[in-house]
Fold these 2 entries.
Entry 1:
Amino acid sequence: MKKLLALLLAVLAVVGLFAGCSAEKEDTEPSVYYLNFKPEQDAQWKALAAKYTELTGIPVTVVTAASGTYEETLIAEMGKSEAPTLFQVNGPVGLANWKDYCLDLTGSKVLGELKSNDFALVEGNATYGIAYVIETYGIIYNKALLEEAGYTEADITNFATLKAVVEDITARSEELGFAAFASAGMDGSSDWRFKTHLANLPLYYEYEATGVNAAEVKGTYLDGYRKIWDLYINNSTCDPADLSTKTGADAVADMVDGKAVFYQNGTWAYGDLASLGDENLGMLPIYLGVDGEENQGLCTGSENFWCVNKEASAVDVQATLDFLYWCVTSEEGTKAMANDMGFVIPFKKALPASNPLVTIANEYVAAGKKSVDWCFPTMPSEEWKNGVGSALTAYAADQTDANWNAVVTAFVDGWKTEYNKNN
C-alpha cells in the first residue's frame, strides 16, 4: 500500500511539473483571439490572420459570431478561460456594458495611426475603442433591372418619386418578371437592417431638428418610417406575413437571381452582390418624405469599435496591439482591408477601397449631398431594438393603425424604459 501511495505521489508530481510548464508556456507565448462582428468578412479576416501567423509565428484565431448574435456570443466567450483578446463594441452604449474589460488605448501605436480622434471612443481621459471601418448604406439597386423597367437613378430624387417607380414596377411585376424590393427579412440574420439601420432615419431627422437627447425621443418622424416600411413590405418578392421567417440570405438571393430591383443594405454587402457586375450596382438614399430630402445623401458612419481585453495576459495584450498595428499599416493588412474586405478605414495608411459601392458613396459627398449620420450609438439597448423589430414584424403581418401604434410605443416608450434601466 505504501509503495502504491508513493507511486501515485510520484505520478502526481510529474503531472504537476508538466502542468506548471503548460501554465508557464501560456503565460509567455503570445496569441491573439479576435471575436469578429462581421460574418460577411469572416473568410477575409481568417486569411489575414493566417498571413500574420505565417509572417510572425504568433497564432491569431478569428471566431465570427452569427449575424445578430454578437452580444450574447461575446458574453459567453468572455466567461471562458481563453477569452477574446480583441472584441468590438458599437459605441457608448456598448461600451457601458464592457468598459471594465477595455484597455485604455491612449499612447498605443495603433491609436496614433487614426486620421482623427473623431474615430476614437473616448470617455474622460481614456480611449477605450477605435473605429476600424467607415461604412455607408442606403437602397442598393440593380441598374439593369431598373432600366428594364424604364427608369434610371435620375428619376428618383425623393420619397414621392421612389414610391411612383416602385409601385409601377409592382403593377407590372408579372410582365417584367421581377419585384421592386427584395424581401425585408425579419429573422435574426436580417432584422437589424430595419430595427437599427432603417430606424436610424427618423432618429437622425429628429436629432437634426431638436438636438441629440439620448434620454428620450419624441418619434416626430415615425410617419415617414411607416411610409418607407410600407413601401418595402408591400412591393416585395414575398407576402408581408412571411417576413418573420425570411433571412438575409433570402434577400441576397432575390437580388443575385434577378428577382428584385431594390435592397436596403450597405457597402459591406458588395461581396454578396458582386456577381451582378460592378456596372450594374447603384445605391440610393433612404427617403422618408421629409422636406428638402432631395439634398439628402447616404447614411455614413461607424458603430464598429475595436477594444482590447485588458484582462488578457500582458503578452497577449501586446500581441493584440501589434496585430492591429500591422493590419492598419502594413501592405498586406491595408490591401486586405481595402480590396478583400472592401473597407474604408480611418487610418493614415489606408488604401482606396476597390468596392464600387464605396465609390458611389464618395460621389454623393462630392456632389454636395448631406450624409445622414449614424445615430446608433445613442440607441439605449439591444432590447430596445428587439422591441421595435418585433412590433415591425407584427405590423407587417397585419397593417392596422393599432399595430403601427405598437411600433410607435416600442420606439418612444421603449426608448425611455431602456434608457432609465441602463443609466
Entry 2:
Amino acid sequence: MIKVLTTAPELRAIASEWDELADRDPESSPYQSATITLGLWRIFAPHVRPQVITARNGDGRLVGVLPTGIHRRRLGPIRIRVLGPLDLWYGSYFDAVVAAEHPEALREIMAATRRRGVPADTVAFPHLRPGSHLAQGARDTRDYLIGVESIRHEIPLAATGGDAGRNTRDIRRTWRRLLEAVPTARYEVLATAAAVEPWIRRFADLHRRRWEAKPTASIFADHVASRAFSSWFARLADQDLAELHVIRTDEALLAGLCVFRWQGCIYGWRQAADPAMAKHGLGIQLTQQAMATAGARGDRLYDMGRGAESYKDTWSARETGLLRSRAPGPGIRWSLLEFAGQALGRPWTRRWLQGVDGVKPAAATLPTASASPHAP
C-alpha cells in the first residue's frame, strides 16, 4: 500500500520504523536515515514541502520510503514544481530505502512519483550512487532519463588508518611545522554531546568565516539554523551517528570536520579551517587524522562525499561516478510549457530533460553498479 506523507507530524510518527528499515538496507547511507534526513530538512530546508512516499506490505509493515519534497525552480517563463530530495542539497547522496525481501516496493514507489495526484511538474533525483535503488529503478523504466552528474571519492580503511597514498611524508612534515608554530595544537575526536557542545558552535562560526568572502554563502550564515544544527548534531553524537573531529588549542578551534557514522563507515560532511592558517593545510591534516582514527577502531571505509575537489587527490582514493535522473511531470502545467516552447521555438522542457549537467544520457557512459561499500 502506497501512502504519501505531507506533514511533519506524519514524518515524526514513522521515524523509528524508517530508521530501522534504513539500518537493514545494505545500500543505504546516513543520508537515507530518518534521523539525519529529517534533521537536515528541518534545519536547512524547511521551505521544502514534504512529499514522502511510503510503501507497506499486507501486514502493515513499512517496506519502502522515498524522502522527497516539492521545490520551485524557474524554467522558461514560469516557475515549476520539482519533486526532488526532501533535504535539498544538504545530504551527500539521495536514494529510496527498500526492504530486501520486498523489491516490488521500489517499483510501486517510483510509479507513485509519476501519478497525476503528485503536485509536481517534473522529477529530478540527483546524487545517485550507481548501485542505488533509484539508479536501478531509473534504468528499468522508460519514464526516466539518467546521466552522469559528478564523482565521489572513497578510501578503504585498515587498522593502520587507511591508504594514505603517496603524500604521507608531506602530511607528517606539515603537522610538525604546525606544532612548531602552535605548540599547544592537538587533534581530538569529540563523540559525545557533552564533548561536542562547547565546540560545535565555534565550528559553525569558523565555517561562516571560511566562506564569507566566497560567492557561495556558508550554510551556517543563518544564525537560527546554526544554533539548531549545533544542538541537533550534539544529540547525534550521543546516538553514535556523528562525530566532530577537531584541531584545537585550549582556547581556539583551528579546524573542524563533521562526520556521520553508518554501518562501519564514516562519511565526511562539512569541514572548516581557520583562513589565517591556510599554509598549514589544516583540512588535509584533519582528514588524515580522521581516517587513521576510524581505521584503528575497525571502520571499513571513509567516504569523502561528492565532488572533484583537488585536495581529495592527496590520498589513493577510489572514484565512482554519481548519477542524476529526470522525468517529465505528469501534470498539465508541464504539457502547456512544452506546447508553448514548441510554438515559440524555445525548447525549455527538452533542454531540462536531455542534458544532465551537460552530459547527455548514454548507456555506454554510465558507471556500472558496484558492490555495496557496507558489505564485509
